[in-house]
Amino acid sequence: MNSPILSTESLISVDPVTIRRRVKWGECDPAGVVYTVTFSEYVISAAEIFYGVLFDCPPQKAKQTEGFGTPTRALQFDFKRSLWPDEEFEIVVTVGDVRRRSYVLNMAARTLEREPVFTAELTPVCVARDERRSIDIPDNIRRALLKYQDQ
């Protein structure tokens, strides 16, 4: 007997970071299509998993230790197709530009049959956690982003 898939999100690769998701029924409208806003949750969740891999610890703990946060400065999407309840897809995370205070995480989602679903560009900005003012990317975070980018 095959066991049902219970997890709706899992890390399946760290090089590059690749997350597999299964669409939950509650993420869809009455016609069975994923709500547009839900794609933002998919991207933010993938970013958090990416940070966990990058920092090798829970992402918010690493950010708290370093005294910075990463609110979203920009988020762009290019949608290629709809997703349906129980459909599985993967999101691959790569690093784009690493700037002075912000950086770009590129995400490409595809079905398990390799059909493109969407691309997204998430641009976090580094801020001092207690003051909410932008700061330079902390040196060790910059190094980690550049190292991942080079791989």
Automatic annotation (TrEMBL):
Coiled coil: none
Transmembrane segments: none
Pfam families: 4HBT_2 (PF13279)
Gene Ontology MF terms: fatty acyl-CoA hydrolase activity
UniProt xrefs under SUPFAM superfamilies: Thioesterase/thiol ester dehydrase-isomerase
Keyword annotations from UniProtKB, A to Z: Hydrolase
Name assigned to this protein: Acyl-CoA thioester hydrolase
Organism in which the protein naturally occurs: Paraburkholderia steynii
